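Thread title: Can someone regenerate the structure for this chain?

I was given the following input by a collaborator and told the matching structure tokens would be attached. They weren't. Posting the sequence so someone can regenerate them.
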Amino acid sequence: MDSADFIHRDRKNLLHPLHHPSLVETPHVWVRGEGPYLFDADGKRFLDGASGLWNVVAGHGRQELIHAANQQAQELAFCSGFAGHTNPRAIELAERLGEITYPSIEQFFFTSGGAEATESSIKTARYYWKLQGKPQKNKTISLTWGYHGLTLAAMSATGMESYWTAFEPRVPGFVQIPSHYPYRYETPAGEDPGTAAANELERAILQEGPDTVAMFLAEPVTGAGGIIVPPDTYFPRIREICNQYDVLFVADEIITGFGRTGQMFGLQHWGVEPDILQFAKAITSGYFPLGGIGINQRISETIRNADSPYQHAYTYNGHPIGCAVALANLDLIEKEGFVQQAKQKGQYLLSALQAAFEDHPHVGDIRGKGLMCGVEFVLRRDTKQVFPPSDKIGLRIHSETQKRGLVTRVRGDVFCLAPPIITETKDLDWAVAVLVESVRQVL
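Best answer:
Regenerated them for you:
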């Protein structure tokens, strides 16, 4: 069948994420993947510039992951993961994660994906503080431009207003503070940018009352919000503030985990450890829906010694197929050196983007960490003035790149590139050339 038939059936029967009729007029109908490429129903090849949704780090069509899923399905396709039930793959994955995550993280709870991981962090933090005799510590502070999923509590933590408006009121107890966003954050004169931005958290804690704040939630590198890399002093100061006011620090590593930034986990760049770690996406390279949280000894011991049960659960906790695929994917990450690949290829891509656009009058900022890079387009470079939203510059540039065979994601007028880690440098060069042509066409 050609794409026209698929599109007709799609419009009739499917309600998509972020759905609007204008977006399903001519959607991509993906039918095959191979390495860093996607192929549509008309046979056209595209470079997957966003790794699916930041997750397909190993590329498409990896037989090792397909085999792991098939083998586990033949042995045990599903079993309950509720207390009193377990399976070897879930146990093995928890052990493996204990070896490669932050040293202080010691126990793991599995979910079906990232939004469920955020929900699990929020509920775990509230449960922990209730067990500590502080039920009033239930608020979550997060960052503007942070993305943490779109279930109701996760959406309330997400710091992008466009995701709220159709579904408000949000869940009470969620507060956003300004992002550290180096290109946009206005640092007071004479202050260190990272420290000043981190002190926004201290001000918010004091305003809300330290006895009411359960946790601070942040991505080590902001992903969907536009590839925002923090100043080096930011997260060390955040850790100090959380310690000072007895607030749990939750690292959302759903995008940054498992090598994407050039470290196995993002906060390792700054020598900081969280109290709770969220993960998903790259743990299975997208071949099976799986996510979860890891908790430190302080929290795990409190839960173990509780009189009441941890009354939190999902049907697919510790899914044996998902855990088997994750184990096989971790083998690939280590065997093929994904962390070092992401570091080297990310530096290469960032340098190529800087060489292509550093003098462009409408490029305000070029940034990245590992193999996640962003180019921010502006109306006026000297003042950082943005284009009118009605101009839809980012969407128009992305439309042009898609005509040329590059599909990725944009946030407003920020063009994001985070291809699979296995992408070769020749394809990175090609992606930059396509972006140059597309920008010339639009601007």
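The chain has a mean pLDDT of 97.
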